[in-house]
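thread: overnight batch results

M.L. [08:02]
morning all. the overnight job finished for the chain we discussed friday. pasting input first so we're all looking at the same thing
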Amino acid sequence: MICTKPPRRLLLLMATAAAFALPILARSAEPDTVTIEANKERELKRQISKFVAGAVFTYMNDSLERWNTPVCPLVAGLPKERGEFVLGRVSAIARDAHAPLGSEHCKPNLYIVVSDNPDDLLKKWSKRDVSLFNTCNGMGYVREFMHSRQPIRAYYNARFSSEGADNNADFLELQGLRFDFSANPCMASGGMDTRLRYGAVQKLTSVIVVVDSRQTTNINMGQLADYIGMVGLAQIRVEANTGTAPTILGIFRQPHPQLAGLSPWDKAFLHSLYTTDQASTLEVTMIKRHMFEQIVGR
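M.L. [08:03]
and the structure it wrote out:
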């Protein structure tokens, strides 16, 4: 039997191929990091969608409600020092969110009232001020607020406002007749909606936040003030189901609240609400996208 040695060139080719094969084998054994990151992003977007859908009142054919005129908070029912703390904290949250904020001597429109008997308080208040609630959403909405069992309840008065409206935005002329809608806060007036733009947007005119002091003993003043800031600047469902999202809105569902204040998710939502084009029919989609970008730091 005759044995021959492989040619030197063949040995060199075999060694080179083996050297290149090692990194390929190593890479194939590693997890697909691109796929993992894509799955994480997809899950985060799903959680953001659930947060917005569960926490915020959304409308099929209208904008979200927000402050377009300066918000002016007033705190009642707390000792002076605590009241000033809540007032300062809510004002700071509004500034950070880019919500319009009134001057020091503005006319109050965000009423924050703390009481150990909120039902009786609201009954007497509504009798003294018959214009306390608008009834655009029906009397059922009013009764639900008046008799709520939530630790903190909020009532939102809002009206439609035409974006870039002229002096005749609240009037409609039809066949020689002139219809005045300016006195009806429940009816959108001004420009016509299109597929891309709302003819009118919903602006908050006043918000009433009532705190049941008997049910808020397990949270501190910082947590209380931040919760009020959240529900006072956006139309929030107080019984919100926000899934697994970290939010101050879940503070009363926990026996021992962990969040010290607004979470990054809460701040991202408020900031997105006030920096997104409210008249765009893609408003909610844009808010979700802006939230995602802020949460991941893009």
